[in-house]
Amino acid sequence: GYFNTALTYLDRLGDYPGVEPDFVNAKELERATIFYDMAVAARSGANRNEALSNAETALSEFLGKGEHPRQSEARLQLGKLQMLRASQMLSGEPTPEDKVAARESYLNSAKTYDSVVANLRPKLEAMRGANINTQQEPAKARLREQYRFQYMNSQYLAADALKLAAKTFDDPAKEGKKELDDALARFQNVNKKYGMYPVGANAHVPMGEVYELLGDSGKALDQYLKMLEEAEVDALRESKYLASAGVSRMKLQEDPKKYQEAIDRVGGFIRGIRLNERSLPAVQKFRLDVAKAYIAKSKDESLKKGEISRAKSQARELLRDASNVPGP
Q1: Inter-residue contact 293 to 248 (CB < 8 Å)
Q2: Cβ–Cβ contacts within 10 Å for residue 90, how many?
Q3: In this predicted model, what pLDDT tens digit does every residue of 193-218 receive, in sequence order?
């Protein structure tokens, strides 16, 4: 298959003339990326674990070589690997031991992302003072942009890892409050500093999720609504589906349930789902949470039969579309 062909190519790099030395020196990083993709695509637990193990070994070998322009990229990959390992531990019906192990993996991932930030901060500061000319030094300009993206993204991912670590507790608001407070402060910082970039704008959703875990539905709703007010650009679409799901959940938590407010605010997104978005996890969550708003409406006996019938029909349609997507 594709993965084995790519691995074979990397193994034979020395046989091909004209290959850039930097690419050859980063061979193990490229191998790790392929193994990571293999793990994501794997259908069996055994194959997934083998691919993850191979990816971790390849990353360790690359990072062990010392300083390299792509070292931060490798650490980002390691953080992703630790996040994936944690999520695998929580699949199915995790035991208390699985949850502890997953929490540790998430916390290690946060530390990995923090190391990327610490490594890149002085480099970016030096580049800022160097006054790089993008026309005369395009390679340096590209490297600066790469570092800047990794620097911002690592801050977001570290906060996300802390949020996910807190969720492994049976009572996140109580047992995981330290991690949730830390995650919230980090997301707020990302949103404040980088709100003009997708990574900053997207932070509204995890901030809403943290507030939701802490039991503050008012502040959670505020963040979800702020996400929906962001610009209509492709880089924010998944977050808007998640925010719409969040609005529905928060409105249904009110007493009485404000199902119509939820439907009026996010129902329009149903017709906007693109063909290439239909199987996205964010869209699945959107369908399920918005379907609950229509179900709540269908149970309101004060409505006319026609309204109840239409609400039932819309709920069935959302749930049918969700069930047609392969996966758990």
Answers
A1: yes
A2: 18
A3: 999 999 999 999 999 999 999 999 99
Q: pLDDT band for position 116 (50/70/90)?
A: very high
Q: Which residue has the tokens 């199987």?
A: 279
Please report, for residues 81, 175, 179, the alpha-carbon distance to residue 95 in angstroms, rounded to integers and kept in the order given.
21, 17, 21
Q: Residue 328's pLDDT is what?
A: 57
CA torsion angle 288 290 295 298 (round to 10)? -160
Cα 154 from chain centre? 12
Question: What residue type is assigned to position 112 of the chain?
Answer: T
Q: How far apart are CA 153 and CA 150, in angstroms?
A: 5
- Tokens found for residue 216: 């503050």
**pLDDT of the residue at 71:** 87
Single pTM value for the model:
0.89
**From the centroid of its chain, how far is CA 289?**
19
Which pLDDT tens digit goes with each residue over 152-178? 999 999 999 999 999 999 999 999 999
HEC letters along the chain: CHHHHHHHHHHCHHHCCCCCHHHHHCHHHHHHHHHHHHHHHCCCHHHHHHHHHHHHHHHHHHHCCCCCCCHHHHHHHHHHHHHHHHHHHCCCCCCHHHHHHHHHHHHHHHHHHHHHHHHHHHHHHHHHHHCCCCCCCHHHHHHHHHHHHHHHHHHHHHHHHHHHHHHCCCCHHHHCHHHHHHHHHHHHHHHHHHCCCHHHHCCHHHHHHHHHHHCCHHHHHHHHHHHHCCCCCHHHHHHHHHHHHHHHHHHHHCCCCCHHHHHHHHHHHHHHCCHHHCCCHHHHHHHHHHHHHHHHHHCCCCCCHHHHHHHHHHHHHHHHHHHCCCCC
Evaluate the omega torsion of the peptide bond into residue 256 and state whether it is cis, within 30 degrees of 0: yes
CB 108 within 8 A of CB 102: no
pLDDT tens per residue, range 256-312: 999 999 999 999 999 999 999 999 999 999 999 999 999 999 999 999 999 999 999
